[in-house]
Design brief:
Elements lengths: L2 E5 L8 H10 L4 E7 L9 H14 L3 E7 L3 H8 L6 E5 L6 H13 L3 E6 L17 E5 L13 H15 L5 E5 L7 H7 L3 E4 L1 H4 L4 H9 L3
Parallel strand pairs: 1-2, 1-8, 2-3, 3-4, 4-5, 5-6, 6-7, 7-8
Length: about 220
């Protein structure tokens, strides 16, 4: 059974609080906070995501799964520390330099927060292998980051399989998270590829029954 991290990108402002309550009741495992700076990706969600994260931290016990799609990762780590997120994930493509990667990993871990590295669809798993012993999660983007409503890129499933095998072969304790285009039609393939945690947005938030949508993603049906 997989965990579900619900992306709140498409939640309308006027209904946000009631939807957060309803999503918690539907037994999502995390709220996925997509922090975009308008530079690393085209969309800018900085104010909206911070507002939502603050609200959730005040009204919910569900953990925050913060996904930084930003260039200056260090600045945003400091901004979100007070909210005590469960997970902070940043993109390999935004950093690349080994020393800076390790500095960011260490900074997050020093604050008792799990750390994840995200990779875009075109980034090979070899690029992050040396960092895997130091982190808790790899987020595989199964769509191009920064744009909602895309279809899952089938080739990314092979990347998930290869990562899962590498993790198992090296006895690493790392969760695999997939983000993008995950819905009723694609979820079984993503779970079978080896994912532990699934990020899904509009499939859940646009559904008439949140709890049923979450059960389908978790594999409880």
């Amino acid at each position: 059974m997989s965990e579900v991290s619900v992306s709140i990108l498409s939640i309308p402002k006027e209904n946000a609080v009631s939807m957060f309550y309803n999503l918690e009741t539907a037994k999502v495992d995390y709220f996925h906070i997509d922090v975009m700076d308008g530079k690393f990706v085209e969309k800018n969600t900085l104010e909206w995501m911070k507002e939502n994260a603050l609200t959730i931290s005040h009204i919910s016990n569900i953990g925050l799964d913060v996904h930084f799609m930003v260039e200056k990762v260090e600045e945003f780590i400091d901004e979100y520390l007070d909210l005590e997120p469960k997970i902070m994930t940043f993109h390999y493509e935004a950093i690349k330099e080994k020393n800076r990667m390790m500095e960011i990993i260490d900074e997050i871990k020093r604050n008792d927060i799990q750390v994840g590295i995200a990779i875009n669809p075109e980034t090979p798993i070899e690029a992050i292998q040396e960092f895997l012993p130091y982190i808790h999660q790899v987020l595989v983007m199964t769509v191009v980051p920064g744009k909602g409503g895309q279809k899952l890129i089938p080739q990314t499933l092979q990347k998930i399989k290869e990562l899962k095998k590498y993790i198992m072969d090296n006895n690493l304790e790392i969760d695999l998270e997939a983000d993008g285009g995950i819905n009723q039609e694609t979820v079984e393939a993503v779970r079978n590829a080896g994912c532990d945690r699934l990020v899904s947005g509009s499939y859940i938030t646009d559904s008439e029954n949140y709890a049923e949508a979450v059960k389908i993603l978790k594999g409880e049906n």
